[in-house]
Amino acid sequence: MPRWEAEGRDRVLAAVRASAGPLAGLAARDADEDDTRLLVTGILRDGLGYSQHDLTADYQITGEFAGYGVRIAGRLAAFIEVKRAAAGLSPQHLRRTEMHAASEGAEWVILTNGQVWQAWHLTPGPPAVLDMVLEADLLAGDGPAVDALFHLSKEAFKHHVIDGLWRVRAATSATSLGTVITSDPVIGQIRKELRRRTGHDVDPAELSDLIRSSVLRPPDTPRRPRRATTVVCGIPVGRMEDLAG
Predict the structure, then answer these.
(1) Exposed site from 35, 42, 126, 230, fewest CB < 10 Å?
(2) Which one of 3.40.5, 3.90.1570, 3.30.70, 2.60.40 gives the CATH number of domain 3-171?
(3) Judging by beta carbons within 10 Å of its beta carbon (0-12, 13-18, 19+), is residue 228 exposed, middle or buried?
């Protein structure tokens, strides 16, 4: 492990442990977004290593959510939206921030209520697409919390650690796997094996359609939301929407 990562993880661990009591207190008294924002600012500074020059308040979003712009080496890399501590997080909370991120060229959107931190990757459109790549719960235990939250640190953005996590996620998504399975070379090999086993020569286009409709997404399987359901390197990561069908 490089020194910068070890030092960053130690700092994140200290912040996770220090925030446990205040987080519980904020949730218990249903603190508003201003109080939650103060705690989040402390975690960003003391845990994730951001200075006041890295966090741009000019991008604050008026209304229900308070936002930051995050700059890495002078480039706008992410937007952060803060929701009150006792509230649940929903993709619907990202609509305005998504528009800001898309217009400013930011690739990441972070949503948090202090306890739970979600990182969403923005793929430019039209239409723009948001996929949740990781979720960190600061009260879920030191190990899981630090492993996930470290990816949102200044060091992780600077060294493209979170980008690497996204590449793993994208490469193994249902969309990517479906594209490979229905590619001409793979379809050709499946035709040969079916012919060897059954003696039936299936038309390539018909075989591709059958795989898409009956194998990759059975007709009675509903479309799933983009939520974290798999684990990469011990970190819960999101599932891209299944577009194979």
Answers:
(1) 126
(2) 3.90.1570
(3) middle
